[in-house]
Design a protein that fits this description.
Blueprint (H helix, E strand, L loop, with lengths): L1 E7 L3 H12 L8 E5 L14 E2 L6 H21 L6 E2 L2 E5 L5 H15 L5 E3 L1 H7 L10 E5 L3 E2 L2 H14 L3 E4 L3 E7 L2 E7 L3 E9 L5 H6 L8 E3 L2 E6 L17 H7 L13 E4 L4 E6 L4 E6 L20 H14 L8 E6 L2 E3 L6 E5 L2 E8 L9 H12 L9 H4 L18
Parallel strand pairs: 1-2, 1-12, 2-9, 5-15, 12-21
Antiparallel strand pairs: 3-8, 4-8, 5-7, 6-7, 10-11, 11-12, 13-19, 14-17, 14-18, 15-16, 16-17, 20-21
Helix pairs in contact: 1-5, 1-9, 2-9
The structure holds flavin-adenine dinucleotide.
The site of flavin-adenine dinucleotide has 40 residues, from helix 1 and strand 2.
């Protein structure tokens, strides 16, 4: 078997890239083949918060988040695929307990506005009006992105894979790439657990599994895998009323699991809250009938050496911390019961930004990894940019220099801001 383009990894990056590449390829003359060793969304993507915010400190990221959000927002209308998209807004809160965050909120709100994004600076009383019951200091400020949103990550990856197949891509799910064949400084193909497959170009989008696979062909990128803990609380039962997006369909998988006859996702009780003063984020996940709480900074976490054998249990210390920070902002959650916990995987780089693009010594190898816990929202732009690279077009979907995989060879690295901010 042969594929002109091979994509390794069936997460949000691999499936979005397979779709973008297949749309531009003849499926007979230049097939795109995607390999996934487990099931679609088995890695970071399936456990993602899938929050689509645009609040960043770098224009390169702001513009990608803006452009990708447009793709997610229009995906259902454009393709008929339901991805659990909900526009609930994102409120980023800075406050006096971390004084730097106040300036950051102001600066980033201005940056967003100059990229054409609706981003409003709110004082404490405006935040309280937006989110009834919200507890903030009188000196706190917020950046509200009314268009901020979230999706169901598993359905999104499945939708990208289906769209890739419709466009002619071949998806080989349950087939692991064991090695990459190199000769004459170029990738010639891959060895999987059942076959050897030749290709003209290879995209490695293997998330937390990328380090060893790339190192096996001499590609050294300083990636560190950590296991962020997440805690869930039941969705507030009407105590924080809001009323947008009542028309969103509830994911079938959730309907099946709970035997629910309703056809609508419950409205998110409040916007996504990105609390940079207290260092946590929270999102109502209507598709899963729960509210997620996560910590923002994982730069000091212990590394995970084997992503296939991670400790899945979540510490009670984290669960208590999550409830404490959530309830300190939104006391209405005191009434709600716990709704489980999970552990995910982040693939961190030293500057908390991804490595995306060709590897100079092996020019037909494209690296797409190291999203440092904030990649889901960027996937459509990453995919479009990689498709442009594969076709030797000027890359307009992202700034290739900002993400150049070889930038880590430089002796000094800027310290990454938590959560890629
Ligand atoms: C808990 C959590 C919360 C997050 N919240 C957000 C958020 O709110 N917003 C946001 O923008 N981002 C968020 N992120 C980050 C985002 O989810 C990731 O950046 C993104 O999912 C990375 O996608 P990926 O495709 O690169 O990797 P993955 O999803 O890990 O996909 C890699 C795939 O490659 C497969 N694979 C690996 N090795 C091989 C091989 N040898 N052969 C074949 N297949 C292989 C794996 O099985 C896996 O399915 C979060 C992440 C986590 C863990």
């Amino acid at each position: 078997m042969e594929g002109r383009t091979i994509v390794v990894g069936g997460g949000v990056m691999g499936t979005a890239i397979a779709w973008a590449a297949a749309r531009r390829s003849d499926p007979i003359e230049a097939p795109v083949v995607l390999f996934e060793k487990g099931q679609l969304a088995a890695g970071s993507s399936g456990r993602s918060g899938a929050i689509l915010r645009q609040f960043y400190s770098d224009r390169a990221l702001v513009d990608m988040a803006r452009d990708s959000l447009r793709v997610y927002a229009s995906l259902q209308a454009a393709t008929g695929r339901h991805i659990g998209y909900q526009r609930m807004g994102v409120l980023t809160i800075g406050g006096p307990a971390a004084p730097d965050t106040i300036g950051l909120v102001r600066r980033n709100a201005e940056l967003l506005r100059t990229s054409g994004i609706d981003a409003r600076v709110l004082d404490a009383s405006a935040m309280r009006a937006l989110v009834p019951g919200l507890v903030v200091d009188d000196a706190a400020i917020g950046c509200h992105e009314p268009d901020g949103a979230g999706v169901d990550p598993v359905r999104t990856v499945e939708a990208f894979a289906s769209l890739a197949r419709e466009a002619g891509a071949i998806t080989r799910i349950g087939e692991r790439v064991l090695g990459i064949e190199i000769s004459g400084g170029r990738v010639r193909g891959v060895r999987t657990d059942t076959a050897t497959v030749e290709c003209e170009r290879l995209v490695v989008a293997t998330g937390p599994w990328s380090g060893p696979l790339l190192a096996s062909i001499g590609v050294q990128i300083p990636l560190q895998v950590v296991r962020p803990e997440q805690h869930f609380v039941e969705l507030p039962s009407g105590s924080i009323p809001r009323g947008s997006d009542r028309d969103d369909l509830l994911a079938d998988s959730v309907l099946d699991r709970f035997g629910i006859a309703a056809k609508r996702m419950p409205s998110p009780a409040h916007p996504v809250i990105l609390d940079i003063e207290k260092g946590f984020y929270t999102r109502c996940e209507s598709h899963a009938l729960r509210t997620r709480v996560g910590r923002m900074d994982h730069s000091q976490d212990a590394p995970v050496h084997d992503p296939d054998t991670i400790e899945e249990s979540v510490s009670t210390a984290f669960q208590r911390w999550a409830r404490t920070v959530l309830e300190s902002r939104l006391p209405a959650y005191r009434e709600e019961r716990d709704a489980g916990s999970l552990v995910g995987l982040y693939t961190l780089t030293p500057d908390a930004q991804a490595a995306i693009g060709p590897w100079p010594a092996i020019p037909n190898l494209y690296v797409v990894t190291g999203f440092s816990g904030h990649g889901f929202k960027l996937a459509p732009s990453v995919a479009e940019g990689i498709a442009q690279m594969l076709d030797d077009e000027p890359v307009t979907a992202f700034d290739p220099t900002f993400f150049a995989p070889e930038r880590f060879r430089a002796p000094t690295q800027p310290h990454g801001r938590p959560f890629g901010l």
